[in-house]
Amino acid sequence: MVYYFTSNVVDPEATLYVGKDKFENEELIKYGWDEDFHVDNLSSAHVYLRLKAGQKWDELPAALVEDCAQLTKANSIEGNKKDNVTVIYTPWSNLLKNASMATGQVSFRDPKKTCTVLVPTRLNPTINRLNKTRTVAPTDGLFAEKEQHLSELRAKAREKAKEARKEEERLKKERREEKYRREHAYEELMNGGGGGDEDGGGKRSNQDGFDEDDFM
Known about the structure:
This protein is an alpha+beta fold.
């Protein structure tokens, strides 16, 4: 089972979720696509955060990080009993999992691509607030959520590529038009002048309204 929580310390609200045990952790590792919060050096649940569009994993609001860290500590049998627990978090893409690791265990592809937060003690008001929002869903839904997420990313990528092609065509058209103007500038200047006077003809009128051609 997967437990979902809502953090209202940010606007819009954030979605957090955590596996019931280490076996569910494996499913979250397999189908994750967000951020992973884990108690460093202690056995704990993996708490994931659903980022909003434009959010960066290493620029999260402090209050949201604290909610995630408190939930992580509370879901660690050993960590929940200790003070001054360090919670480490990283993008899901930075998680490393191989066959030699125990169930639920992970490492990092790039240890430098992590952040840590110290949790001095358990904050019961925070945990109680989060627990009031808890909902439960089967792990089967993780695959569908991941596929839906990937489908949305592909759609956005196609739309972005389409816009890029349109912009490229617009620029090509502008370059063609500019090239044509440069190549035909002299010709247009000569044709536009017509070799005549400003009134467009070869005649001029005197003040009395007679054309000079009427006189010898």
